[in-house]
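for the writeup, i need someone to sanity check this before i put it in the appendix. the sequnce is what the collaborator sent (i think, or maybe the updated version? ugh). structure was predicted straight from it, no edits. if anything looks off just tell me and ill rerun, i have time this weekend
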Amino acid sequence: MLKLFFAALLLFAFTPQTQSLTDISWISGDWQTAPGGRRQIEEHWTAAAGGSMMGVSRTIAGDKTVEFEYLRIEQRADAIYYVAHPKARCPGTDFKLTRATTTEAVFENPQHDFPKRIIYRKTDDGLTASIDAGEGTKGMSFVFKKMN
C-alpha cells in the first residue's frame, strides 16, 4: 500500500499542471516606462476573457511613435501562447508559456531569431518585461509602472 502511495505521489509530482490565463492575469492593465528618457514605452493589456488577453505596445520618441506591436496571450488546447505582431506583421510569432508563478510568466520560442524568451515579472510597484536569447544570455529589461 505504501508503494502505491509513493507511486501516485511521484506521478502527480511529474505530471505537468495545466495552466490557465487566470494564473497570469496580473499582467492585465495599463503600463508605461518612466517618462523623461529618450523613449517611453506603453503596454496595455485587457483582462483575461474568452480564452485570451489582448495587448498593444507602442514606443514614443519625442513626438513620434517609432515602434508598435499588437499582442495577445491565448489559451490553446495544448498550452498558453504569447503571440507578437511587431508592426502588425502577419502571421504573428508564437511563444509558448513554459513557466508561470504568481509573479513571473516565461514565454519561449527557441526557433525564433530574437528574442527567444519573453519574461514578465510582477514587482511591488509595477511590472518588468525582459527579452533575451535564452537562459543565461544577456537581454534587455523594461521597467513599467501602472499608468494613472
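Confidence is low (pLDDT under 50) at residues 4-16. The beta strands are 29-32, 39-45, 52-61, 64-75, 80-86, 93-100, 104-108, 117-123, 126-132, 140-146.
thx in advance!!
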